[in-house]
Amino acid sequence: MPHDKIFITRSHIIPDAITFLQSRFDVEVWQENTPPPRALMLEKAQECAALLTEVTDVIDAELLDGATTLKVVANRAVGLDNIDIPAATRNGILIGNTPGVLHESCADFTLGLILSLARNITYGDRKIRAKEWTVFDQIPYLGTDVYGATLGIVGMGLIGTAVARRARAFDMRIIYHSRTRKPEVEADLGAEWRDDMDAVLSEADFVSLHMPLTPETEYMVGKRELELMRSTAFLINTTRGRTVNPRALYDALSGGEIAGAALDVTDPEPIPHDDPLLSLDNLLLTPHISSASHQTVRRMGQMSADNIIAALQGEPMPSCVNPEALGGN
Ligand code: GLV
User: Fold this and answer.
1) CA-based, 20 to 30 A from 281: which of 66, 140, 176, 249?
2) Whether 219 and 305 share a structural domain
3) How many domains does the chain have?
């Protein structure tokens, strides 16, 4: 094990985890803040036992099929849409992620987006800095009350549940749809189940997306779904940009079919500086930072390091999504 080589695809995000791994392994770190070039990733996958990756690193079938030495990929994220899991499994490569350490931070952030959007907090800030606030007049800044409103959650996993818990403190009514029904969340938080996403979309004042990006959820919110929403309703997306069709969202926001949207994630990402969405006043954008608190990023780094150590020691990983990979090959 001391000779196992690890490649870490970013230098500055998780310094503590890097130091921790360096004390145990032969660690190489990509020193830029951009993803390593494809050719380098292919090369590293053929000489390392482990890769510690970010969501923007593409770990596809070509890379995994050629990864002769690779035993584990630890993604510093809960989402795994950048990794071809079936290809990893058939090559006997374990895949780790970081659930359980970021949901509270993501939920804090989601509530922040809901409040900012509903009460024009960032909109007001934008207008002042643009020198457009010249007279005391609240009418252009009238918002929508959050308390007492209906929050629709799509995807009641750890993050969705943490959002629901916070929403309760704002006296919001909570409705939800998820792959699996969650009786404990219904009992604890009074969340009401809906059979399908359409029912959530048509009933909610705020719709917050928390499902993972999979082939089934890709562009799951498009023209038809946005038309189901109320004209006074808001959409919040903190999961992955590709769950929402950006052109349909532009049409719905500019045509007044919905009242506004907050996106922490976009398609593509980063959003191009000339994207038409940037011209809309009823859209709030943040740069994919819902989990990004100092404390949580450190915990995600440590969990990724722990995933690698466990996998290379042949022990159960803190979070492995394809333990069956060990039986394969
Ligand atoms: C971040 O986007 C994550 O999936 O953790």
Assistant:
1) 176
2) no
3) 2
